[in-house]
Amino acid sequence: MNLKPFLICGKLFWIVATVAVFSLTDAIAEDLIAKLARPTPEQAAWHDCEIGMFVHVAPNTWQDQEYDDHSTPLEKINPAKLDTDQWVATAEAMGAKYIVFVAKHTGGFCWWQTDTTDYGVRNIPWRGGRGDVMKDLAESCRKRGIKLGVYLSPADAKFGAGGGGRCKTPEAQQRYDKIFRQQLTELLSRYGEMFEVWFDGSSITDVGDILKQYCPKAMIFQGPYATIRWVGNEDGVAPYPNWNSLPLARAKSGVSTGPEGNPDGDAWLPNECDARIRSTWFWNTKNANTLKSVDQLMSMYYQSVGRGAVLLLNMTPDTTGLMPVADVRRAEEFGAEIRRRFGKSIAETSGRGELVELDLGRPTRIDHVVTMENILGGERVREYVVEGLADGQWQELCRGSSIGHKKIDQFAPTEVSKIRLRVVKSAAEPRIRKLTAYAVDDAPKTAAPAAADLAQKVWEWSAETTGKEWKTVNIDLTPYCKDACVYQVDFESTSGSPLEIQSLQYVFDGTVLPEFVRKASADTARYYVTVTGLGKPLGLQLVVRTSGAKKDSRGIVTMRKCPPGSDGNTEAGPRVLKAESFKHYVDTFNKNDRETLVNAIPNASAWSWMADNVPRFECPDKQMEETYLFPLVGLSETHQADPGRVCGDRVPASGRLGKSLQHHQLRRGPSYLRRPMASRSEIHGRLRDVLLQRQRQSRRRGQGLQQLAGRRRLRAFSGRRQQGLGG
After folding, report:
1. Nearest one of 528, 489, 547, 481 to 508, comparing CA atoms
2. What is the pLDDT of residues 402-433, one digit of tens each?
3. What H or E segment, with its residue span, contains residue 719?
4. Domain residues for 165?
5. Three-point CA angle 544, 549, 550, nearest 5°
6. Read out DSSP for 545-572?
7. pTM assigned to the model
8. Which of 217, 295, 311, 705 is buried deepest, with most CB atoms within 10 A?
9. Quick one: 111 and 242 in the same domain?
């Protein structure tokens, strides 16, 4: 029998199949690349600035406070020594490439010649009422090549405009909209090209036509035309991972913040980290001792610019119009330290693909690696490792997730002859703009951002006080909100039926700001509230009722500051779960179908955080660990006293969590439970197994290759799990 035709057909089949597979792979890759969010050329140029300088001065500078109460007579406001050349020289010395000047803060005072109000520079003694700070600053910036931006507050107390420029009546709104549009037109048309425009707290006045006519290339902070977003705190700290993209719907809200970053988002909206060199935005006579040290400023730099964001550092003139000498000197020292550390590299390279190598020429001591992506092609790296070659062996120096415009990694001084960037996970072929090695030597280790403040109880409910009919409740948050940032609000049921929430709105100075509230997920009673301004009464307005037939419905509402990079995006050290929260989760576990982790931690990102951090997770104390953690992983409180006992009686037999536990053979008491327990880390390891399983279930909602890959990883994980202790 002649087999040659069959062999030829077989070869042709494999050739066609191979071509088809590669074509499919290419098509999938092209589709992924096409979906990547990308910056505009103007956004990319803004990223390259890395540092900007904020300038705040207003009548409240003369009042020793942060908000203008209109108590200072205009004839008392006379910044006789005001020198914008000094301001710009300070910006230049600290490495800032642009300045954003607060031309009008919430009090309504205007620092340029405008016909829209009598509350402004034209009615003060300075230069006989003919001075124009915007004009002076624009000329100073042009002389030194510094870009100019402007802050025009939509809120204006002189015209009764609250947050976002909202007025109390349609007539007042129409009148103020006209004034605000005129003010913006004056600022954008008289002083040359604007690099950035700030609408602090967003704006409800439609100014799209004005922006398009006078500054189509400017970066817009907040509002419906935003091209950059607020990081969500005033500490100069970006979340990590710091993803520059997010869903388009949130980008259009005009009030999205840093923690909302999503690597799969379809809109590029990078973070600007506004921060203060003193403890306040405006100069006052009481805060000279709050001037930040160089080390504090460098820590801020690492956690903003070093995470791919842009740092906007505030400098504030005093009542003479000059920036204080000590502040100027500190800004100069800050800029000098940045240049000392990163002004000259040991070596650098660029490249494409999953492996980019940098040859240092000889064994060299290094302690920093700076990596930059070519973000014009999108943010492609999802996970990476930097390794160094020492004594012929590659060893890990650092690892991370997002890179974006820039990622600064600091590690213990190590002598290596080569370094390499190994991309572990990416959305498309990585494009590395720069891989650079530095030896800083005496740089202190950058401190991790502080964890969130402890939760504060702001309200409590009961069936008697709330009732079964819809009821409006106002919660005053003024005593609890000390900083402008994103706050996490949780409704925690302590007994009986949960609270039904029809609506939750944020209210600032009597103005309802619905866009500043977002729900964590559809099936949770957690909300995020963005507070952009202080100095006025603020709170929550709820419409609620108790649900179900039970009459013992009780619970509390707690609030806390979100840590930098909430939803798991933080580099803080080991987390200690508060005892009451730990007990609450496990009590719910025992009561509500024994699915506490599914109900109490409903979203995939929280599961991801738990799975990633359980090895670093600390219970409040040994008793809490034995009473609440052990049962979750199939161990009773008496296990340590009786290692031979099979401990599975308190683990759920049904439900999603129960199935996860059964999958890991914890419920039936596998053999490794019948021998002495090695350590608490073994227990943590078993809990990690459960969380990893739940995390995979949450993430396995994709399609096609993602689903297939998820099943393969799970099978591989299960195989490894059955081969050993898995602790």
Report:
1. 481
2. 999 999 999 999 999 999 999 999 999 999 99
3. helix 705-723
4. 41-342
5. 90
6. EE-SS-S--EEEEEEEEPPTTTTT----
7. 0.73
8. 311
9. yes
